[in-house]
Write a structure and sequence with these properties.
Blueprint (H helix, E strand, L loop, with lengths): L1 H24 L19 E19 L2 E23 L2 E12 L2 E6 L2 E21 L2 E20 L2 E21 L4 E17 L8 E17 L1
Antiparallel strand pairs: 1-2, 1-9, 2-3, 3-5, 4-5, 5-6, 6-7, 7-8, 8-9
Length: about 220
């Protein structure tokens, strides 16, 4: 009886040792770790940038109260911008100011008068509201516009020139794409109404009223801090 018990115990011990040895030979492979998803782009922050494009500028003119028609011309526009965005979920709100040099020059003549009207500088300060699709942003904007205009005129009583600042309003739409966490590119359209100013008010035979508008199409790059 004791011999049978000893044999049985020995058999169980040998079987257990065999199972343990086989288990030790098995190679353990941990489950692969899933790659972390890239973080969503956040538009919040200050930025500085540059832009360039075309300004289609139109002038409506009156001389001493008489309408002498309108002229338009397309010129280069290029400048700098700075602003701040704040993102809430997919909504992006912000403010921006920009200033640009333009080469738009309009010429006209009427009954012995001739004049060239050049819009030298154009700036805007606007609010922006947009919707972000991760690193792609579409937006609308609106605010105040200002520009320096100069008229060189030849009249029956002499030649004159005068510069004045116009102040009006602007509205536009645009799209912006983030290439990296810091570099974004944009395309934008703006309508600008600079209102009217009267030039040469103290000149005999003068009194040239200029009402200026512009359609601006531009592209640019921003650096986001």
């Amino acid at each position: 009886m004791n011999i049978l018990r000893i044999s049985a115990l020995a058999s169980v011990s040998l079987l257990a040792l065999g199972v343990t040895a086989q288990a030790a030979d098995l190679t353990y492979e941990p489950a692969p770790v899933a790659a972390a998803a890239p973080a969503a782009f956040n538009w919040t922050g200050f930025y500085l940038g540059v832009h360039a494009g075309a300004a289609i500028t139109k002038g409506d003119y009156t001389v001493n109260g008489f309408d002498i028609g309108s002229e338009s011309n397309t010129g280069f526009i290029g400048g700098v911008q700075a602003g701040y965005n704040y993102q809430i979920d997919n909504i992006v709100i912000g403010a921006q100011t920009d200033l640009a040099y333009t080469s738009a020059k309009i010429g006209d003549s009427y009954l012995g008068y001739s004049a060239d009207n050049k819009l030298d500088w154009l700036g805007t300060t606007t609010a922006r509201v947009g919707y972000a699709f991760d690193n792609f942003l579409v937006y609308g904007k609106g605010g105040v516009a200002y520009g320096e205009s100069k008229i060189d005129a030849n009249t029956p009583v002499g030649s004159f020139d005068e510069s004045k600042w116009h102040v009006g309003w602007t509205a536009g739409v645009g799209a912006e794409y983030a290439f990296t966490q810091n570099i974004t590119g944009l395309v934008e359209y703006n309508y600008v109404d600079l209102g009217s100013k009267t030039y040469f008010e103290n000149v005999v035979g003068g009194g040239v009223k200029a009402d200026l508008t512009s359609n601006v199409i531009k592209a640019g790059l921003n650096y986001k801090f």
